[in-house]
Design a protein that fits this description.
With 201 residues, the chain is an alpha/beta fold. It contains 9 helices and 5 strands.
């Protein structure tokens, strides 16, 4: 099974992905967690740093971000996810191509039809259509508080102004509607959010 947990920065994706990993491992399953676009893969990590660390200084073009994100997820999928799925394991991803739709499409203005076309050309159908997917949602106040607790935003997209964040937020809501993805209220405790996710599974 391929499961995706999505949402803006500060919604708790990585935390919930790891709790879900523990949940399935207790059932004797093989589970891999991927944090797109980084992941436990050197080449994906290098691409991640170009986009979200160096990109803040270099001011990469939005279309370049689309190409780089897609390249990173191609490596992660083919080298980590596919082998795990073929063995009957479970892949849990914190982010997938829906992030590119939200950030590069709604946020940076890249044609959403182009993002869909590039993704479908580069990635297999199973990647594009996860077995289960969720979008975590919190209020702007909660999101900013959580991000603030991690210190000053140093990554490219976290550091963008409120106007950009509002576009991304609206984008996620539209993506959820268009692709029929459940929205999870992530404003509660970690345990409460986890229980909501498990109930959806």
């Amino acid at each position: 099974m391929y499961i995706v947990i999505e949402g803006q920065d500060g919604t708790g994706k990585s935390t919930q992905a790891r709790l879900l990993k523990d949940y399935f491992e207790k059932q004797g399953k093989e589970v891999v967690v991927m944090d797109e676009p980084d992941g436990d893969l050197p080449q994906a990590h290098e691409i991640h740093d170009i986009i979200v660390i160096k990109g803040k200084e270099w001011k990469l073009e939005p279309i370049t971000n689309l190409a780089l994100f897609t390249a990173a997820r191609s490596e992660l999928w083919r080298k980590i996810a596919e082998p795990t799925l073929k063995r009957g394991g479970i892949v849990i991803s914190a982010r997938n191509w829906w992030s590119t739709l939200a950030y590069q499409g709604y946020g940076e203005g890249v044609s959403r039809s182009k993002i869909i076309r590039v993704t479908k050309e580069m990635m297999p159908d199973h990647y594009c259509n996860p077995d289960r997917g969720f979008i975590l949602k919190v209020s702007d106040k909660v999101r900013l508080e959580r991000q603030g607790s991690r210190g000053k935003a140093t990554e490219t997209f976290e550091a963008k102004p409120d106007e950009f964040q509002q576009k991304v937020n609206a984008g996620y809501l539209q993506i959820a509607k268009n692709l029929d993805i459940p929205i999870i209220d992530a404003s509660g405790t970690i345990e409460e959010v986890f229980d909501l996710i498990v109930s959806k599974l």
